[in-house]
Structures are given as structure tokens and as C-alpha cells.
Amino acid sequence: MESSSVTKEQKKLLSNHISRSITDTSYQILKWTAIATMTVHHVGYLLFSLGAIGKTDYIACYTIGRMAFPLFCFLLVECYYHTQNRTKHLVKMAMLAVFSEIPWDYFYSGKAANWDTQNVCFTLTLGFLMLYFMDIPVTGIIKAFAPKASENTKIVGFYAKVVRFDLFAGFLILAYLFRSDYSFYGIFLIAIFRLAHNSNHRIAWLIAGLVFHIFAKPPFDAALLFSLADLVLIIPAISGKPLPCTEHFSFLTSKAAKLTASLFFPAHLVILCAISIILSAL
What we know:
Number of helices: 12
Order of helices and strands: HHHHHHHHHHHH
Mean pLDDT: 88
Distance between the termini: 61 Å
Strand content: under 5%
């Protein structure tokens, strides 16, 4: 990153990214909060589909589950800017998405293959790839075609913004056509959280992202308002201070806990599918 090809803007952003990292324990607390709230929704869905709970109980589980996706998006952006090997992490995410698809399809549709929707890991993988493309040194590419152009000129800056916008729009279209969970508005939320990470008005952008998330998909879903509860954890985490009671959750930073968190999504879907099959057979 010290080569002459790195622009002043990139150096500034790199410094900004390093100074904005949250502690490992806070990261894991946020991840397990997302996992727990997601699981509450999925278990509620299973019990409701089996007739074990009523609609009111399911709505409560569904509402709690609305915290999960914004937290995963926030953590995705954090991971992108602080992981040591982005390519390795992207491959792991893509593999997780592929392995999760059959249990996801069966859990929600009762079929091993359902092309109407793809699991949320595909959305997060597309989002991670979008972040990678959004950070491509576009000014360097422009200078390759126009060597005499200065990276600081308005015209080069304008074309750089156009290229980045086109890349961003391309991923929105991909998510929509691929029918990944949360569709294009999920990608949009990740992009807003990217802006939040790079902005001096970070909290304002985070709030804007959550408000967008609440109103993005028609018709209006009041349960999404509960996603604002994420701010109770996110704001203290980005302040650089440990989250409350952090000392009691240091075990979450162990290799075993991190491995469990990494494999939790496909594993819990397989378990829920197995429970559904067994109970349906009784």
C-alpha cells in the first residue's frame, strides 16, 4: 500500500478504516446477537408451520428476527475493511452460500430446490464482492487510457464516480435477478453501511441505512422498526469502548466459538429441517 500507485485519497481511507475498527469481543457479541435473533425467527417459523404456536407468538419471533440482517450487513463491512485476506473470506462465504441452499430451500418451501429465492448468504457474498469492486482504483484505470490525465482533475473524478456507480448498480441488478434474500435493497443497505464506515458522520449514516431498510420494501412492515434496536449495540461498539459486560463474553473470541459461528447458518437449517421431518412423520 506504500507504492506510488496509491492515491492520497486511498491512503486517507486506509487510515480511516484502521482507526474505525471495533474490538474483537464486540464484533463477536454483535455476530452472536445476529445469530440468536435470526434463530428465534427461524424456530418461530418452524413451530408456527407445525401448528405448535399461534400467529401472535410467531409475529413476536418474526419481529425479534428483524434485528439480524442489518447486524450481519454491518459486520460484513467491518470484516471487509479489517480481514487479512479478502479473497479467502470471499471464497468461504460463497461456499457457505452454496452449502446452505438445499437446507434453506427445504426449510422454507419443502423442496430441495426452489429457484424463487436464494439464501441470505448469497446476498452477503454479493455485498462483499460489491465492496471489493467499489474499492478498485478507478483513477488508475482511467490514467492507463489517458496517461496525461491527472487524478486530481474534476473530469477524472467525475468518471471515477460514474464507474463506481455503474458497478454498484450492477450488483443491485444481480441481487434482484438472482432473487437472493433481501434482494437489491439488501445490497443497498450494505452500500450505505460502507458510506457510514468512511464518513465522519458515521452514526447519522448508520441511522439512515436502518431507516432505508425499514421503508425499502413495500408494503410497509412495522416489524422492521425493531431493527432500530441494533443501534443500542452498534453505537457503543463503534465508539471504541467495550460493550457492557464484555468481560463475560470473552469466550466468544475462542477458535471454537468462531468456528461454530461460521458454520451456524447451514448447521441450524439442517437441524430445523430434521426436526420438521421427524415431527411431521409423527
